Here is the input.
Amino acid sequence: MSQMSPAMEAALGADRAMIFGAIRMDLPGRTVRLLVGSGFVRFSVDGTVETFTGSDDVVGVFSAIDTLTDGMGDEAPALSLTFIPAKDAAAAQLASVAMQGSPVRLWLGAIDPMSGLVIGDPLLLFNGLLDVASLKVSSTGRTVDYEITSIFEDFFLSDDGARLSDTFHQYLWPDELGCAFVTYVAQQIYWGTSSPDGVRR
Here is the structure.
């Protein structure tokens, strides 16, 4: 079964399909809505019709996308987006620490060449978080690379310092008294190894 809407699947199955890529980045203080290419399209995002254009006042224009890599082991899927920023954009606007964790989404859609309207619902290809922003300067100009990780990256976060105690429990969930009146949680439990008394549990 296809993940595409029936209208979009039919459009892509036609002899000629006019497709587009759209990128939305919710950066601190502003939202970037860019097309891969020029022009503009409008489609619904989270119930609101939004306009995506070929350039942004700060980020500039889309330049390249790195191959989407599937995560292996303890890595989540990731990709890299490259933009050619506006000439007067400050470095702090392009690569700020505050951008880390900003939501980034990518869509693939189809356009009716006669009306210019989006056909069906664009397919959400990637839903992730901005990880690292890198500003690069060369003899031909500036580019900014955004490393995007999947939202599943959070599944790899570990609580190495997690403790089964009332204090730590309330640190995570304030005023939750699930461990407040439980005895025995302060005693160390030895899993799969011998305790100091020599008894294996």
